[in-house]
Amino acid sequence: MAQLPYLTYGQVPPMSSQEFKKLAQSLISKSDASLLDYLSLMPDYSDKIAAKCGFLKKWRDWEFSLRLGLAKQRAIKLKQDVPLEEPKTSYMDAAAVILKAIDEGSPLKGEIMLDKARWYAIEEITGSNYFHRDCAFAYFLKLLLLERRQSFDVDKGFDEYKSLYASIVDSVHNEGDLK
Predict the structure, then answer these.
(1) Contact 95/72 with Cβ under 8 angstroms?
(2) C-alpha pair distances (Å), 170 with each of 133, 161, 177
(3) What are 92-144's pLDDT values in tens digits?
(4) Where is pLDDT greater, at 134 or 177?
(5) Are 81 and 49 spatial neighbours (Cβ–Cβ below 8 Å)?
(6) pLDDT greater than 90 at residue 88
(7) What are the CA-CA distances from residue 149 to residues 27, 40, 77, 114 (Å)?
(8) Nearest to residue 62, comparing CAs of 39, 89, 44, 86?
(9) Are the CB atoms for 102 and 110 separated by under 8 Å?
(10) pTM of the predicted model, to two decimals?
(11) What pLDDT shows up at residue 91?
(12) Is residue 42 within 8 Å of residue 62, measured between CB atoms?
């Protein structure tokens, strides 16, 4: 890990997540390397898999809590019923980040804010033992975040927004014609 380039949020990834995965698989145990297949920005694995690694469980629980908090705040904003399920963890106070991200004037800025919160959560979950497998897992997740950040395209996103908005307006007008 000490020989890998230091990562900062927003930078161009020094290597792809797949390149890192290949490198890590040659340097860590087979059982640890197999856990890399479960690491994702949208974790969806069972408790059986999470039981194999505390890092996986903490990451899954934190991301679940963030997504649940987002769903609750969006439901409140839209005056819809709020989900009753409670978050599984509170590794950091994500509530303030969620509120800021939802109220952000731009969806891009909101996504960046949420990804920065993910970045800091990964650091918090990892801890300070730099010679533990968790550091390799954290590095992989951070590369995934950097790749995600690189995929954001303002012009493409705005075009998509205009297209979606136009289809909504058209459907409203078409419903009015039918009545």
Answers:
(1) no
(2) 53, 14, 11
(3) 566 677 877 877 778 888 899 999 999 999 999 998 877 788 999 999 999 99
(4) 134
(5) no
(6) no
(7) 27, 15, 26, 11
(8) 89
(9) yes
(10) 0.78
(11) 44
(12) no
Nearest to 72 by CA among 63, 59, 62, 81: 81
Q: Which stretch of 20-34, 91-105, 140-154 has the lowest confidence by average pLDDT?
A: 91-105
C-alpha separations of 131 from 10, 41, 47, 56, 134 in Å: 25, 23, 25, 17, 8
Q: Which residues of 46-70 are buried (b: 16+ CB within 10 A; e: fewer)?
A: eeebbeebebbbbbbbbbbbbbbbb
- Which residue do the tokens 């020094």 mark? 14
pLDDT at position 71: 82
Where does 4-106 have alpha helices with state H? 17-27, 30-35, 47-50, 54-77, 94-103
Transcribe 17-43 into DSSP letters: HHHHHHHHHHHS-HHHHHHGGG--SS-
Query: What CA–CA distance (Å, rounded) separates 114 from 91?
Result: 14
Give the Cβ contact number of residue 125 at 10 Å. 22
Mean pLDDT of the chain: 83
